[in-house]
Structure formats: structure tokens, C-alpha cells
Amino acid sequence: MCPTEPAAGGGADLVPGRRRGPDQRAVAPGPGGGILTSAFHAAAAGIDMLKVEFPGYVETSAGQDAALAACQRLHEGIDLPWVILSAGVGYEDFKTQVEISSRAGASGYLAGRSIWRDAVSHHDPAERAAGIQAARGRLDELNKVARSYGRPYSPARPLADVLTAMPDGWFAGWHPQG
User: Fold this and answer.
1) Which residues contact 152 (CB under 8 A, 6 or more apart)?
2) Of the chain's two ends, which shows fewer C-beta atoms within 10 Å, N or C?
3) Mean pLDDT of the 91-120 span
4) Are strands 26-27 and 19-20 parallel, antiparallel or unpaired?
């Protein structure tokens, strides 16, 4: 079971090592401290991939520098792929978070509201269509950032190694329909 901490207002926050401040942003001792501690514990448990909340803020240059340092500490402290999650922040902030985390070694991102919020928040068909187009453009931009700066999820292997590892006819039984 994951440990929890008391949250502002007396409830429990289900993300370990993190408290919610009055503005509902994650706060932790030091830049990203609780987020990093939780990530290190999770990585030690033998997981294959880690998704983490962005360990900092991007509103100022100093905040971005501190967040980059926290992301670098995260990357240096684990030996597995990790991705940043959007946590519902605005798109422009999330795009900055993806770039910072990718430059530090993240393998990508997981996002929802930061991308599609405008596509589902309107009832007018024209506004909804514009929101869908915006979401498509956001995905293209985020993918470009992650591919430009991020670490591949799994390292490329030489073709000779792949061919040696794959037996003849490996594909014949991969699908239940045969």
C-alpha cells in the first residue's frame, strides 16, 4: 500500500510523498523532493516504466532551472524509462514541462486535459471542431519536442542481434486467429 500524507484541509492525498497546497499544486520539500522520493521508491520496486508528476514549476526562469535540476536528479537516480504526466496543467506550461523533462532524459509524456480540454468543453459544433484541431496540433508539437530531446523508451538494437533473437516463423502464432 502506498503511504499517504495529510493534505490541506485534512484529507489524504493518494500520490505518495506529495501534499497539496492551497493553490492545489503539488508541494514538497526542496524542488520536487517528494516526487523524486516517490519515484526512487517505485523504481526500486522493480517496475518497467515510471510516470511522474513534473517536479517543479515553469512560471519563471529560476523555476525552470530548478525543475530541470530535479528532472536530472530523477533521471540519474533511476535506471528505467520515465515519462512526465500532465496533471491537467495548461497546454503551454505542459509543453515547457515536456521539453525540460525530455532534455533531462524522459522518454515521453502522458497527457489528457492539457491536450483535449478545448475539444470537450464546448457544445457548439464549430468550437468543438476547433478544439479537436487544436488537440491534434498539440499532439504534433509535443511529439516533436519529445522526439527531439527525449530518450528512446528502449534502446535501438543492431539488426543482427534482433534476427538472432527472433526464431524462424516467430510471427506465425502471435495472433489468436492463427
Assistant:
1) 107
2) N
3) 95
4) antiparallel
Cα separation of 165 and 172, whole Å? 16
51 is catalytic: yes
Contacts of 42 (CB under 8 A, 6+ apart): 50
Q: Under a CB-based contact definition with an 8 Å cutoff, are residues 129 and 120 in contact? A: no
Those residues with Cβ within 8 angstroms of residue 63's Cβ, 6 or more apart along the chain or in another chain: 56, 57
- Read off the pTM: 0.71
**Cα distances (angstroms) measured from residue 24 to each of 9, 21, 85:** 11, 5, 16
Q: Which of 4, 16, 43, 51 is catalytic?
A: 51
Q: Give the separation between CA 77 and CA 39, rounded to whole angstroms.
A: 9
Q: Strand ranges (DSSP E) for 72-145?
A: 82-85, 109-110
SS3 state of residue 27: strand
CA distances from residue 2 to 11, 16, 37 in whole angstroms, order as listed? 15, 6, 13
3-state secondary structure of 52: strand
| pLDDT reading at 83 higher than 60 | yes
Question: Is residue 173 classed as helix, strand or coil in its secondary structure?
Answer: helix
